[in-house]
Amino acid sequence: GAIALYTILRQLGVSRSRSALGMAAYLFNPLSFILSFTFMTDPHFASVMLVSVAFFLFGLNPVGPRPWAIVLGSVVAGYAFWIRQQGAVIPVGVVFYLIASRQLWLNWRSVRLAAQVVVAPALMLLVYYAWLYWINDVPDVQEGFFNRARGYGWDGTWFLLRYLTYFELAYLGFFLVPLTIALLPGFRARAGEVLFTSPVGFWVFVGWVGATVSGLYLLTRQDRRMPYIGQFLGAGGYGPGDVPGPRQRLIEWAWFYDVLTIVSVAGAILLGLVLCRRLVDERTPERAAAGLVAMVALWQVIGILPPSYQYLTRGGSLDRYVLPLIPLTIALVLWSIRDLRLIQPLAWLVVAVFAVVSTAGTRDYLVYMDAVWSMAREANRAGVVNEKMDAGSGWDGYHLYTDMVEQNITRNMSPSRSPWWINFYAKQTDSTYIVSTSPNWRPGYAVVTQRSYDQWLEDDPVSVYLLRKQDAPWPPQ
């Protein structure tokens, strides 16, 4: 994925040194880094998407079109769809780019070009849905995106459009800090020049600022701060809290989250300024390439909508859904600032800070999960069967999901208000025993044993606990 991003940047006319910087900014981005050490498919999808975009750029170069590269890009886009369903909008974005750039008309050449883009993904989509309906054993949560969209109706869609627009701007504003902070001296040096090459860019920027400021106002009134949709990057640190019991708040100073929010919003506004200043300019091959990247990015924004319906009443979305936008936005920013001074040592310094913190945070998450799984294995050795234990979504899904599907288990055996993963992955467990991060997570349970574990970023003592129902025997019979 990072190599594909470098290739994209070079096709956008970005220098080698800045392309390397963009690649590093993506690799050591906190969200990219932590997701690379999990079973989530988001980083795989983002990587395949970038490979597809790189092929499309190479094949649709106005100087010398290459049909074979277009077909390869379409095949890779189909593979991206097999990884995550929003891959379907990659070729859609390419088609809309071709329409906007007047490369598709009512003639045979246009038919051939459109076929090169869409035929392979369409066939792969049909194969996927044949598998989904005839061989499918994926969790229900992955099947019902569009059913939930119909259930929430236009009101739910309008809610998500408003909230997701701001969430995406705020997260991108933070994740691209290594680039935007290194741009500030360049903007000062060119303060006497006209910022926008056209009124269109100016008014788009006004709308961008309006969406950012209004979103900030709306979320602040709800007493919400960054990270707004934290799953893999939250107040508890790196990684999701999909284990019974909360993780300790990593940074307890309330002002820190105010500052984080301000930095994210300021970064989002600066991003808008950078991207809109040359929105309309002379046509060049590099500009055409940037248009294709922008159209793919726009459709990836739309692709975030369907999975977000699942979380409409629980925050609005998840941070990992923003991941595909990060490398595409990096590419667009570095293309748009080719004429601006960039203090690369400063940018590399911020990337290094991100890398150090991400390494420590990811290490802490892996140690934390190892402690949870070690406690669950200890319970197994003591005689606790998995059908009587809840040790988090990862453990339950790995050990119980296949049996649940094969045995057609539809009744949830755990107490009411059990975590979400029980219903999706482990209906057969009755949660007599629980591996938790808190000894008091659920009333009616007693502590069997506890184990402490080491963390680099958390300075307070942390432990995992094996809990049992108060009327359950120990050791198990």
Describe the overall structure.
The chain is mostly helical and 477 residues long. The protein has 2 domains: 2-342, no CATH class; 364-469, no CATH class. It is 60% helix and 6% strand. It has helices at 2-11, 16-27, 30-35, 42-59, 67-83, 89-100, 108-134, 140-143, 145-175, 177-180, 184-189, 199-221, 254-276, 285-303, 305-308, 325-336, 344-381, 393-406, 420-425; strands at 233-234, 237-238, 389-390, 433-436, 445-453, 462-469. The strands form 2 sheets. It has a 4-stranded mixed sheet with strand order 3-4-6-5. Strands 1-2 form a two-stranded antiparallel ribbon. α9 (145-175) crosses α12. The longest helix is centred in the C-terminal third of the chain and has 38 residues, at 344-381. The radius of gyration is 24 Å and the shape is globular. The N and C termini lie far apart (51 Å).
